[in-house]
């Protein structure tokens, strides 16, 4: 807690000006958003502002998250929290100064040391229990007219002075610019992760955006497909089909990501994913992770199928092909419309194997290269002609597992 009763009314204007200049220059000494807030508060306290709680609330463009909050208190690390969209409908949020500012775009001050202070937000009772005597909430206005929020609170006897309030209001504009720049980068990262995958997103942000820019990688490759999707599409309403697809993908993507894989794209009802092999010594481990993900996905889809059948629907089935090899990883497309993906014979091989899985009624099939990484886990089902490949290819499926199979080696 700051030594509030003896804090001067007049801030050190030279320090305040230096802090404003630091924000205007982009707060470049702070690597992360939480570092910006920590350093800003440290500078303001050194300048004589009696701060005991500062929070910044920034909405974001993310498939799952409505926004993030950053809360600073003296002597503690900045606490970063994420809020789902459901928060917007909660009573706690709707009855908050933040929601009011989102709606009205006007500052809110509640001088809690004043006996006539309005008691119109439930948050104020909590602040009083913390010894807060004054609370100021300011809109942070982004250049696209979005409204975000910063709040400042003190335990100083008598609350903030009018000069201190004026300083905080003066800080709102440069703080908005810094928050907007950081939020835009966070949004870019989250959207790239959502639409092209984490690793691909990082590569794109690092500047690998020209058509033809690619690199050879080695990976365990996953290609899966829902069985009978065309028939379902003809017989189900579009809304029901979309809901089914989302449930289906939930059952598949979760184990892929849990095992360290990355989904590169959804192709209708299909999924293309890779388990990147950065070190040749880790090839067996990558294949083990991919196989475990496939077995978990199989169990997940079976459980979903049981739910569908119990409600009167048709059973749900899928197939997945696994291969390991080299692929070109990078940009393909036309003009400024590009796709960051994997191509090459190894990907083609995986696609052909997935067709064999469908034809043979198998859930999981693997190439000989993939099966060779864990031969005790697979058995061959024969040799098959694959379109585009000169030689017949041996195709493998996982062996039936004993009840006490134990953990799969990685």
What are the SSEs and their pairings?
Elements: H1 13-24, H2 33-46, E1 53-59, E2 65-72, E3 79-84, H3 91-94, H4 97-104, E4 108-110, H5 123-129, E5 134-141, E6 147-154, H6 162-196, H7 198-205, E7 214-226, H8 229-235, H9 238-258, E8 262-267, E9 270-276, H10 283-310, E10 318-334, E11 337-343, H11 345-360, E12 364-367, H12 368-371, E13 378-384, E14 393-398
Parallel strand pairs: 10-12
Antiparallel strand pairs: 1-2, 1-6, 2-3, 4-5, 5-6, 7-9, 7-10, 8-9, 10-11, 12-14, 13-14
Helix pairs in contact: 1-2, 1-6, 6-7, 9-10
Describe this structure in words.
- The protein is of the alpha+beta class and 410 residues long.
- The chain folds into two domains: 4-195, Beta-Lactamase; 198-398, Alpha-Beta Plaits, CATH 3.30.70.
- It contains twelve helices and 14 strands.
- It has helices at residues 13-24, 33-46, 91-94, 97-104, 123-129, 162-196, 198-205, 229-235, 238-258, 283-310, 345-360, 368-371, and strands at 53-59, 65-72, 79-84, 108-110, 134-141, 147-154, 214-226, 262-267, 270-276, 318-334, 337-343, 364-367, 378-384, 393-398.
- The strands form two sheets. Strands 7, 8, 9, 10, 11, 12, 13 and 14 form an eight-stranded mixed beta sheet that branches. Strands 3-2-1-6-5-4 form a six-stranded antiparallel beta sheet, with helices on both faces.
- Helix 9 runs antiparallel to helix 10 (283-310).
- The longest helix has 35 residues, at 162-196.
- The radius of gyration is 28 Å and the shape is elongated.
- The relative contact order is 0.09.
- The model is unreliable at 1-7 and 401-410 (pLDDT under 50).
């Amino acid at each position: 807690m700051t030594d509030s009763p003896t804090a001067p009314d007049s801030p050190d204007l030279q320090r305040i000006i230096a802090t404003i200049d630091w924000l205007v220059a982009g707060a470049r000494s702070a690597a992360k958003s939480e570092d910006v807030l920590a350093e800003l508060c440290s500078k303001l306290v050194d300048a004589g502002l009696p701060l005991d709680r500062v929070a910044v609330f920034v909405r974001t463009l993310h498939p799952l998250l409505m926004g993030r909050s950053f809360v600073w208190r003296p002597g503690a690390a900045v606490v970063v929290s994420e809020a789902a969209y459901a928060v917007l409908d909660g009573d706690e949020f709707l009855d908050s100064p933040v929601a009011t500012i989102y709606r009205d775009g006007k500052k809110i001050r509640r001088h809690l040391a004043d006996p006539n202070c309005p008691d119109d937000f439930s948050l104020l009772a909590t602040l009083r229990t913390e010894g807060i005597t004054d609370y100021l909430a300011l809109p942070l206005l982004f250049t696209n007219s979005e409204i975000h929020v910063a709040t400042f609170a003190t335990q100083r006897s008598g609350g903030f002075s009018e000069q201190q309030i004026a300083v905080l209001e003066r800080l709102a504009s440069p703080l908005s610019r810094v928050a907007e720049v950081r939020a835009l980068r966070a949004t870019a990262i989250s959207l790239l992760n959502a639409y092209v995958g984490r690793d691909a997103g990082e590569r794109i942000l690092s500047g690998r955006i020209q058509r033809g820019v690619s690199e050879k990688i080695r990976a365990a490759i996953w290609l899966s497909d829902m069985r009978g999707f065309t028939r379902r599409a003809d017989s189900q309403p579009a809304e029901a089909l979309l809901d089914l697809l989302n449930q289906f993908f939930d059952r598949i993507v979760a184990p892929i990501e849990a095992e360290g894989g990355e989904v590169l794209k959804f192709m209708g009802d299909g999924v293309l994913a890779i388990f990147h092999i950065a070190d040749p010594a880790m090839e067996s481990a990558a294949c083990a992770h991919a196989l475990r993900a496939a077995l978990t996905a199989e169990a997940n889809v079976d459980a979903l199928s049981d739910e569908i059948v119990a409600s009167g629907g048709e059973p749900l089935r899928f197939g997945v092909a696994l291969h390991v090899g080299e692929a070109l990883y990078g940009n393909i497309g036309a003009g400024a419309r590009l796709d960051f993906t994997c191509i090459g014979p190894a990907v083609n091989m995986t696609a052909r194997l997935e067709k064999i899985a469908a034809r043979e009624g198998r859930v999981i099939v693997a190439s000989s290269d993939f099966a060779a990484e864990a031969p005790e886990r697979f058995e061959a089902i024969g040799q098959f002609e694959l379109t585009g490949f000169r030689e017949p290819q041996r195709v493998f499926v996982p062996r039936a597992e004993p009840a006490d199979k134990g953990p799969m080696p990685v």
